[in-house]
């Protein structure tokens, strides 16, 4: 079983993927900043490296704990993590001899930028641009990669209708749980083949505001 070195398990999609790992007895190594979260995960038998994923020393420690056969998985986002943090992570993985990485960014990255409305670009365009830079850094690395660009993320139960596609993207929504299911399937592949995927649930709509 190939270990997962998971960055971003403290919340969101990363937390959902951690639950999938625990449910399937998947070997997983986490990097967490929160000491209480780290304690709870250790009680479940998970190897945890405490610290900031933007710090080279923390990344190096995590890579050593995971071993060279592990696949790096990052669902990190926010602030300086989007580009500079991922640059540190990618560089550290290469230096430690790891070979594969799965990176979660968002729709609108790369060639998907024109899909975003002017309002969306004003609201979170900077984050999308930085995530696009992270994608480029990974693409120009030595790592065998898969990049997943999910649509708008919702905290709703899984529909199991998420669709991974390649080529031109369309805007849409996706449950965080369904993103985790899609990532789990990709992680079963022995080789990623340097591919980029879009991920939405074409039948999912924004819940009505009451």
From TrEMBL:
Residues 8-189 form the NAD(P)-binding domain. CDD domains: SDR_a5. Pfam families: NAD_binding_10 (PF13460). This is SDR family oxidoreductase. It comes from Symbiopectobacterium purcellii.
């Amino acid at each position: 079983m190939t270990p997962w070195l998971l960055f971003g398990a403290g919340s969101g999609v990363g937390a959902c993927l951690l639950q999938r790992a625990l449910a399937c007895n998947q070997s997983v190594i986490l990097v967490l900043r929160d000491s209480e979260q780290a304690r709870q995960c250790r009680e479940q038998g998970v190897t945890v490296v405490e610290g900031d994923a933007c710090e080279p020393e923390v990344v190096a420690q995590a890579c050593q704990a995971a071993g060279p056969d592990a696949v790096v998985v990052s669902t990190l986002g926010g602030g300086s993590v989007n580009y500079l943090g991922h640059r540190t992570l990618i560089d550290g993985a290469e230096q430690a001899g790891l070979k594969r990485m799965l990176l979660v960014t968002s729709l609108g990255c790369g060639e998907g930028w024109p899909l975003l409305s002017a309002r969306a670009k004003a609201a979170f365009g900077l984050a999308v641009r930085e995530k696009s830079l992270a994608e480029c850094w990974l693409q120009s690395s030595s790592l065998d990669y898969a990049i997943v660009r999910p649509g708008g993320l919702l905290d709703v139960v899984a529909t199991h209708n998420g669709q991974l596609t390649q080529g031109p993207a369309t805007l849409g929504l996706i449950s965080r749980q369904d993103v985790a299911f899609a990532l789990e399937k990709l992680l079963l592949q022995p080789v990623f083949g340097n591919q980029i995927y879009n991920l939405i649930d074409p039948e999912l709509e924004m819940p009505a505001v009451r």
